[in-house]
Design goal:
It is built from eight helices and 18 strands. The protein is of the alpha+beta class. Strands 1, 2, 3, 4, 5, 6, 7, 10, 11, 13 and 16 form an eleven-stranded mixed beta sheet that branches. A five-stranded mixed beta sheet has the order 8-18-17-14-15, with no helix packed on it. Strand 17 and strand 18 form a beta hairpin. The protein starts with a strand and ends with a strand.
């Protein structure tokens, strides 16, 4: 089932029906056995007639007080891309080593206030000449460290800044409107299918300039492995979102431009759509 956050409240979509749930987002999601809780809630709740319209017109990013973290170099293509962008700085071997290391690359991505939802604007930095979106299956993990749901993440990245020096990673990754989540939180009673497909299209002046897809199966690390490292020395009272890395990397000569349209689709979750802008 799908859980949406809207300006008019939170809505559950299940078996073509829509249901209003009158609780705060954090109170709903930050629990164990979320699927069972929502399933039980639906047994004594009547559907609403305007759920689809509320989602279409008043959609918000599916996040409350949660931090957003991210994992890097979890796909072979990502390792190759990072090595390409950092070749002139002499730090390409860093990414080669972390791909095969026991410890994954994990980094803080965003506070809730810098996360935008579907149909909203993401930013590229004015001090970067090479900017790309990174489409990622994103986990929602509750305060106990258990994966409770999945959403689509767009980890906006300034490749020229990170490529100049790996120590610039926070500046390349963490800035205003650098993260998007949505359109919903997919809540399952089982782990996501490894054959799930992630697709991304980029439209510029009504023409497609990028289109590719990948299976989650190509990811080198297991989801629970990433969660274990993230939670080993951190506490998240409201839970946490974790972007799990990308394998869809546009060619080196490509960079985003203002007004580009980014369309990211993940099987079972839906479409995350963003328009590219920049801070004024």
């Amino acid at each position: 089932m799908k859980l949406y956050r809207t300006l008019s409240g939170n809505i559950i979509e299940h078996e073509n029906g829509y249901y209003s749930i009158n609780l705060e987002w954090n109170e709903i999601v930050n629990r164990d056995k979320l699927y069972s809780y929502l399933e039980n809630f639906l047994t004594y709740t009547d559907p609403i007639s305007d759920g689809y319209n509320l989602i279409d017109e008043k959609l918000c990013p599916p996040i409350g007080d949660q931090e957003v973290w991210a994992a890097g170099v979890t796909y072979l293509r990502s390792k190759t891309a990072r090595m390409e962008e950092s070749s002139t700085s002499g730090s390409a071997s860093f990414y080669d080593h972390v791909y095969d290391a026991v410890r994954p690359e994990l980094f803080y991505k965003s506070s809730p206030g810098n996360v935008v939802g579907s149909n909203d604007i993401v930013h590229i930095r004015k001090d970067s000449i090479w900017n790309v979106p990174e489409p990622e299956l994103t986990l929602f993990i509750n305060k106990l460290g258990n994966i409770q749901g999945y959403t689509i993440g767009n980890d906006m990245s300034s490749r020229s800044i990170e490529g100049e020096n790996p120590l610039y990673l926070p500046q390349a990754k963490v800035y205003e409107r650098s993260a998007a989540l949505g359109p919903c939180l997919l809540v399952l009673n089982h782990p996501v299918d490894p054959n799930t497909s992630i697709s991304m299209r980029i439209i510029r002046n009504e023409k497609e300039v990028y289109n590719d897809s990948v299976s989650v199966r190509q990811m080198k690390r297991k989801h629970n492995e990433l969660v274990d490292f993230l939670y080993s020395e951190n506490t998240f009272p409201s839970g946490c979102y974790l972007m799990t890395g990308t394998c869809l990397v546009p060619p080196s000569e490509f960079t985003l431009l203002v007004n580009d349209e980014i369309l990211i689709t993940i099987d079972g979750i839906g479409l995350l759509r963003n328009i590219v802008g920049t801070k004024k």
